[in-house]
Specification:
The protein is an alpha/beta fold and 247 residues long. 41% of the residues lie in helices and 18% in strands. Strand 1, helix 2 and strand 2 form a beta-alpha-beta unit. Helix 5 crosses helix 7.
């Protein structure tokens, strides 16, 4: 079976005054509505807080096949997991509840086997060797953005995005990539740069290693930080990230 996994932006409560965040949430629900099976990933450490309960209620309204995936089970006691699964079942009759550790790979095969069994019959939509339908430039941007969020999420939640400005191939198989990290304020730029540029250097090194691992070749990555005060109102930024500013 060919399983097309649509990894949507996070779903969270957002104020009317934040159009960028609203566009992300709208994109997530729109993609979920088109899916054959909806999988809700829940951090088992976080449990069922009010926000997660609201998401389950929304999933229930969709009236589509849905599964619950409890992640990070290696960090939570078994008794807590069983209670969490029972509480979730009371909120919505999920077809299946899976317990996994994405970090260690435990339980992941069970999820994939189940999803394969639920795929509708029909021709494959993508070639067998194609892993993603997004461009190399965008994928490289997403890798760097993920590294930034992992390191700076507490300081800069959703206050930045990354654009790949140039992608140059060399005869020896290596690639030279130039990316711009766009932020809203000078203070944000300082956070990313760090003392004597140490933070930016570490981010670039981690991103480069992930890019090299993914493409299996040597990469040269250059990162720049630019301040654009109103980038969240720029239609081009929304288009680059596959979001619809009208929402």
């Amino acid at each position: 079976a060919q399983i097309i996994v649509v990894d949507v932006p996070g779903v969270f409560e957002v104020a009317e005054s934040k159009p960028f965040e609203r566009a992300m949430v709208s994109c997530a629900w729109g993609a979920s509505a088109d899916a054959d099976v909806v999988g809700m990933m829940l951090d088992a450490r976080r449990g069922l807080d009010d926000e997660n309960k609201a998401i389950i209620a929304r999933v229930k309204q969709m009236q589509k096949p849905a599964i619950l995936i409890l992640n990070k089970i290696d960090l939570v006691a078994k008794e807590v997991l069983l209670t969490l699964a029972m509480q979730a079942s009371e909120l919505h009759p999920f077809e299946k509840i899976f317990m996994i550790s994405a970090l260690k790979g435990d339980g992941v095969d069970d999820v994939m086997t189940y999803l394969a069994s639920r795929m509708p019959a029909g021709p494959w939509l993508f070639p067998e060797d194609q892993l993603t339908d997004i461009s190399e430039r965008l994928l490289a941007s997403e890798i760097t953005r993920e590294v930034l969020f992992m390191r700076l999420n507490q300081e800069l939640p959703y206050a930045l995005h990354v654009e790949t400005e140039s992608w140059e191939e060399y005869d020896n198989g290596s690639v030279k990539i130039s990316q711009v990290i766009v932020v809203e304020r000078d203070g944000h730029k300082g956070i990313i740069l760090g003392k004597n540029g140490a933070t930016l250097k570490a981010i670039g090194e981690q991103s480069r290693k992930q890019i090299e691992t993914l493409w299996g070749r040597r990469a040269h990555l250059k990162l720049f930080v630019k301040v654009r005060e109103h980038w969240k109102n720029d239609p081009d930024a929304y288009h680059y990230m596959g979001l619809d500013k009208r929402k």
